[in-house]
Specification:
The protein has 19 helices and 16 strands. By secondary structure, it is an alpha/beta fold. The protein binds pyridoxal-5'-phosphate (PLP). The site of pyridoxal-5'-phosphate has 16 residues, from helix 11.
C-alpha cells in the first residue's frame, strides 16, 4: 500500500510516511487507495477487543506491519488507559457519547499518541533507520501533553513542544510544564496555535535532517496520528451493534468537536471504508472558519482570532482540511496546489458547489461561548452528565442540526476531553462561580457535581514546573531545538 502527497510528491510506503510526518513538498500523505471494510470484516470485528480491532484495521493501512506486532503494540498502548479505551455511553434513545477521554492525559489525543511511538519504532526498524528521531509538536493544548507523555523516555527519540503561552487552559499548561522525562522540552510562544503550526511546518520544509537525527511530527499532519483515530469510529459502531442499539447496516451520525480537522477526517475515512455513516457533523467554536466553508465554499482566515473556553479548537488554519480538499478535487494535486497557494498568498480560497457533491455527508455548525456554557449546564441538569467545553460545543451543534433537519438517526457525540482539564470554565458554566485558581476550581467542581477529581489532575499540584522558556513567534524557526 503506497502513500502519496496531496501536492504530488512521489509515492512512499506507509512506514516512511509515518517517519517523515509531512511530505517534502509540504503536502500531507494520504493512502493511494482507501481500504475496504466489508460486512464480513465487521462480523469479525464485533467479537474482538479494542487492541485487536486496532491491529486488524491498521494492518489494512500499513501491511508492512504485521497484525501480531500491531497487536503487541496496541496492547501496550491501550493498557495505559483506565478500563475500556473508548466506551459508548447511552444518553437517550437517539443520543450516545463516545468517550475518548480515558487515556493518561485525559484527552482524545491519547487514542493516537499512546500508540504512535510504537508505530515510529516499527517504522524505523522496517526502514533500517538508525538515527534518532526528533519529534516537533505545535499544540493547542492537548496534543502537547499527550505527545510528551507518549514519547517520554522512549529510546532514540526526543521531543520539543511549542504551545501558545496565553492560549491554553491553566490545567493544560500545568500538565505540560510539569512533564517528567529526560528527552522532553516545552517552549511557550507569544502567538497562537496557527503561528506555532506554520512555523513548525516551515522547519520541516527547511530541514533535511543530519547524520545524527531526523525530524518528525506528532501532529495530525502525520498519517501515524490519523490512522489510529479511524479505529474508534468503527469500534463504536461495533459496540452499538453488540449492545443491540442498532441493526447491522443501519446508518448512524457522528458529531465531532473540530479544530485541525483531524478527528472528523478520520471519521470520513471510516465512512469511505464502508462504515454505515449518514452525517458527520463538524462542530466548531466561535472560530468558525470551517462552518463558513461548508456553508458557502469559501475558506477565509482573514478574520479575528478568538480565545475561547474550548482552546484546543482555537484554530483558523485547519491543516487536515487539505486531505479532504484533495478528495474534493478528485485527487488532482495540481488543483489542490492552486488552492494552497491562494491560502498562502491571500489567506483565502473558494471551492465550487460541484466539488462538494462527493462530501455531502458533512454538516457544519458552530457554538458561541454563551451557547457552549448553556449546553454544559443544561446537559448536566437533564442527563447528569458532565461535558467539557469542547464536547459542549458538539452538543450545541447537534441540537442545531436536529432543529434544522428533524433527523432522528441515532447519533454518537464524540467526547474529546475530561471536564476537569477546564475546571474553571466548567464550574462557571454550571454555577456562575469563579475560583482563585484551577485547583480550587477543580475542588469546587467535584463537590458541586459529586464527581471525583481524576488522579492525573490532583497529582499535578505536587509536581514542580520544569520549563520556563518563552519565545516570540518569529523566533520559532531559528530556535535551537
Ligand atoms: C484537539 C482537540 C480537538 C480538535 O480535534 P482536531 O482533530 O484538531 O479537529 C477537540 N477537542 C479537544 C479537547 C482537543 O484536544
Amino acid at each position: 500500500m503506497d502513500y502519496i502527497s496531496t501536492r504530488g510528491y512521489k509515492k512512499v510506503s506507509g512506514s516512511r510516511a509515518i517517519l517523515e510526518g509531512i511530505a517534502k513538498d509540504g503536502g500531507l500523505y494520504v493512502p493511494s487507495v482507501i481500504p475496504n471494510l466489508s460486512s464480513e470484516d465487521l462480523e469479525i470485528l464485533y467479537d474482538l477487543d479494542y487492541p485487536e480491532r486496532v491491529a486488524f484495521i491498521l494492518n489494512k493501512y500499513i501491511p508492512e506491519f504485521s497484525e501480531e506486532k500491531l497487536l503487541e503494540y496496541a496492547n501496550l498502548a491501550y493498557g495505559r488507559f483506565d478500563g475500556d479505551p473508548c466506551p459508548v455511553v447511552k444518553i437517550d434513545d437517539e443520543t450516545y457519547i463516545l468517550e475518548l477521554t480515558h487515556g493518561p492525559t485525559l484527552a482524545f489525543k491519547d487514542m493516537a499518541l499512546t500508540l504512535l511511538p510504537y508505530l515510529m519504532k516499527e517504522a524505523k526498524s522496517v526502514n533500517n533507520e538508525k538515527r534518532d528521531t526528533h519529534i516537533l509538536v505545535a499544540t493547542s493544548g492537548d496534543t502537547g501533553k499527550a505527545a510528551l507523555e507518549g514519547f517520554r523516555d522512549v529510546e532514540g527519540t526526543k521531543i520539543t513542544v511549542f504551545y501558545p503561552q496565553d492560549g491554553v487552559s491553566s490545567m493544560q499548561k500545568k500538565q505540560m510544564l510539569t512533564q517528567e522525562g529526560e528527552n522532553v522540552n516545552v517552549v511557550g510562544i507569544n502567538g497562537n496555535f496557527d503561528d506555532a503550526q506554520t512555523a513548525v511546518k516551515q522547519i520541516f520544509a527547511n530541514n533535511k535532517g543530519n547524520d545524527k537525527e531526523t525530524l518528525s511530527s506528532a501532529n495530525s499532519i502525520n498519517w501515524g496520528r490519523l490512522v489510529p483515530q479511524i479505529v474508534y469510529y468503527i469500534s463504536a459502531y461495533c459496540d452499538l451493534i453488540s449492545s443491540e442499539q442498532i441493526k447491522s447496516g443501519e446508518e448512524i451520525n457522528f458529531v465531532v468537536p473540530t479544530g485541525n480537522f483531524g478527528n472528523v477526517l478520520a471519521a470520513f475515512y471510516a465512512k469511505k471504508m464502508g462504515l454505515p455513516i449518514k452525517k458527520l457533523i463538524v462542530a466548531s467554536n466561535k472560530n468558525n472558519v470551517l462552518t463558513d466553508f461548508f456553508v458557502d465554499g469559501i475558506y477565509d482566515i482573514n478574520r479575528e482570532f478568538y480565545k475561547t473556553i474550548s482552546p484546543s479548537m482555537d484554530i483558523l488554519i485547519s491543516s487536515n482540511l487539505e486531505r479532504l480538499l484533495y478528495e474534493m478535487m478528485g485527487r488532482d494535486s495540481s488543483k489542490l496546489c492552486l488552492l494552497m497557494d491562494e491560502l498562502k498568498k491571500y489567506g483565502k480560497y473558494s471551492v465550487d458547489k460541484e466539488s462538494f457533491s462527493g462530501v455531502d455527508c458533512f454538516k457544519a455548525y458552530f457554538a458561541d461561548e454563551e451557547e457552549t456554557m448553556y449546553a454544559i449546564d443544561n446537559f448536566f441538569e437533564m442527563f447528569d452528565y458532565l461535558l467539557d467545553p469542547h464536547t459542549g460545543v458538539a452538543v450545541d451543534c447537534y441540537y442545531k442540526y436536529i432543529q434544522e433537519t428533524d433527523d432522528n438517526t441515532k447519533t454518537v457525540i464524540v467526547s474529546t476531553a475530561n471536564p476537569f482539564k477546564f475546571s474553571e470554565d466548567v464550574l462557571f458554566a454550571l454555577d456562575q462561580k469563579k475560583a482563585e485558581d484551577a485547583f480550587s476550581a477543580a475542588k469546587k467542581l467535584a463537590s458541586f457535581t459529586g464527581i471525583e477529581i481524576p488522579k492525573e489532575i490532583s497529582r499535578l499540584k505536587t509536581l514542580a514546573e520544569r520549563f520556563s522558556t518563552v519565545i516570540e513567534k518569529n523566533e520559532i524557526e531559528d530556535f535551537k531545538i
